[in-house]
Please model this.
Amino acid sequence: MPVRTRCVHVLRVAALLMLGLLAACDSDSGGDVDSDGLLAETTFDPHWGVVGVFSDAASCTECHRTTAQTPDVMTYDGRDVSPKYGWENSMMALAFADPYFQAAVAEEVAQFPHLAGFIEDTCLTCHSPMARTHARQTGEGLDEDGYYRFATALGHMHAREGVSCTACHQLQSSGDGSFGTPSSFSGGFVIDALTAAPLIYGPYDNPVRGAMRNNTQYDPAYGPHMSDAGHCATCHTLFTPTLDLAGQPTGTSFAEQSPYQEWQNSVYAPDGSKPRTCQACHMPVPAAGYETRIAITANGNGNGNGNGNGNTGWPTRTPFHTHGFVGGNSHTLEVMLAFRNLLGIEDYTSTEGLDAQIAATRALLANRSANIAIEAVNNAGGTLEIPVRITNRTGHKLPTSYPSRRVWVHLKVTDAGGVVVFESGLPDARGHISTDAAALQHDCVSGEKVAGFDYGSCFEPHRDVIADPAQVAIYESVLGDVEGDNTYVLLHAAAYLKDNRLPPEGFINSATPGTAEGLPVENVGEIVGVDATDTDFSGGPDGGTGQDVVHYQVDVGAHTAPFTITAELFYQSVRPGFIVGLHHDEEPRIARYKEMVEVIPPTVETLAATSLTTP
Model:
């Protein structure tokens, strides 16, 4: 975060503290503390031990870490690259604690109270996989309808640890025998309920078994699926049931998140020209060819004899993937950093670790997400014609996954005297842009339908040509309900009204990925709302360029050359409508999240920037 912005956030948090709005957790009470509508969690205990076939991450990281006594183990260029360091402040570790996730679940439950158990159980499948799986395996902790509920999860430390070591490393393929198939999506993974020596999978063949067998309940095994992108797709491909406006299932599903299918329809798929997996980008190796031993003994010196050299009898491994799981969620991490005590994660995270995770997220966004270029500018009789090319450098749509995200172009033109001639897409201090005035109309974000209202006014259409500074080139997905109207209620989503998120290189709109077959979902990953005449967008229906060109037309007749043109590509993980669209403020976790984003508005990240001055 820029220093100025960070200082503003710190001052805002300090102001809330002075007002008494941030409640400290009363550890003696054993319950939540409510102060002026803000909810405080009990403190998470990372040493919760063993529950069924699951163990706490703290027991795993006793060995899978580096220490001062073993500087050659899981260290690169002076940096700790161990699983412990990467995971413990990641969004995987914080999947349950995420206050936006909690608010979104509370909103859907409040909207559909008759489906509360189903909604919470479904969401906890991937946000608390250990606890929900254990409850399903044993029947313990389920409600009378057989659902694992949020209130129960709050009291289970193995639920609050989120996506932990012994969840991912015990995942097996679904019932049809493989990952990346329809039955494996939306949390369709399998973890065996063995009572003794459950298998724990790693990506290396011939694992060293003795130490793990002697110190844990697990028997290590080679699992080639650990390097398979389909392993990630079990939770990162999500199809949700569509409910009609009366809250009843329609029998169809909606592709809420499909980065795996987007990746399959790209040059980065296994049969593409640039094969690259999810793990390659989001769990990168420290450096090409890097190898290391992957464990020390629990006493920290590697072999128990105190010489500090580690157990040199254990093999070195390559490739070795870091475990930071870096993505695009810098804003949520900033919120968690500011409210660690309120969220009860102060013994689970560190300020230094969260700062490092935010920095890594920002580096990924800025260096590996997109390019922007101003191409040949033409002055046609006092009108500057400015083509701006955006290139998606990711292996999925930009942005991808949860539909709250957006990317847009900020273009500014100044004359010889520095006077602003034209500006489109400038965000204000709260991350709002000019088009948000229409998007945040009451009827647009209301949870109830309004007869006769024009819902088409609730979002900015795809722009190929922009001549008005009020227009903005925004790449986003817009949810539509069964009547084709804009909605922010996730379970009302039946189709996309707009999905001009920039596809990855190689993406062909007419090619529905084969793994969508057998699902009651049509056109997974389809581009929506881009006119076929806009052949600059991904090169047209059969182009697959992963690029778009926006054509700006700026009247400069009354101004003096030379003109300086600046183009920036901005990204926001939570756009304002998704915050205002949380309607049930009586729900403590919704009220709390709204207070949090009052302090720390959704961050605007810069993915790419360029400028030029005309002759």
The chain has two domains: 41-325, 370-505+546-613.
